[in-house]
Amino acid sequence: MRSRIGLFSRPRISHKSRISFGHVEADECGGMNALLRAAPNTTVAFGALGCAVSIRDLADRPPHPVPDGDALDLGGRRVRFVATPHVPHNWEAQVLYEETTRTLLCGDLFTQAGRSRAIDDDVVTPALDAQASLASAAPGPAVPAVLRWLAELQPETLATMHGASFVGDGASALDSFATGWEARFGARGALSTLR
After folding, report:
1. pLDDT digits (tens, 9 = 90+) for 138-173
2. Closest C-alpha to 66, from 55, 77, 76
3. What is the β-pairing status of strands 64-66 and 42-47?
4. Alpha-carbon distance 171 to 78, whole Å?
5. Which domains does the chain have, with CATH numbers?
6. DSSP 3-state assignment of 79?
7. Are 100 and 106 in contact (CB under 8 A)?
8. Which of 55, 156, 159, 194 is the most buried (most CB within 10 A)?
9. CB 178 within 8 A of CB 147
10. How many Cα atoms are found within 13 Å in the side-chain-facing hemisphere of 169?
11. Which residues touch 52 (CB under 8 Å, ≥6 apart)?
């Protein structure tokens, strides 16, 4: 398959660039080193904690640690790195916020199961249903607290990794997700659904 596509067989990206992702799991960064081989001037940009605990060991070349809250200028776009430890899971978790378009790259936040449209007006209910089934997030009050904190960014687009994205009042969607989370999972969080 790779030889048919040719993407990873020889370098194709010659300009200096950065790649990033939400946390260290195969579905987020499993192709990291293949991308680094295909793009010799590319560096992994990730939160300092993630670089310290995982990326330095996994990446074929040294990553660029980005302090929490700092932004990288991508030439007309600014991507802010926002640490969200254990939210939805993993110690090094982060989301990326593109300030120009007000797009929150949510990673595994708002994960939805099954088929969905590319953009939907309700990402909260399917995300709560998926969490009830998967129980993948950290228990306790961390998730709703982080969701409310992210709402303060006033995003206009919630770009999810698994499921439909949302365009509109992202702050309200994040607040609704936090409220729904507390109503369905309580203070103990996701793991209480397994008992």
Report:
1. 878 899 999 999 999 999 999 998 888 999 999 999
2. 55
3. parallel
4. 19
5. 1-66 (no CATH), 67-195 (3.60.15.10)
6. strand
7. no
8. 55
9. yes
10. 5
11. 65
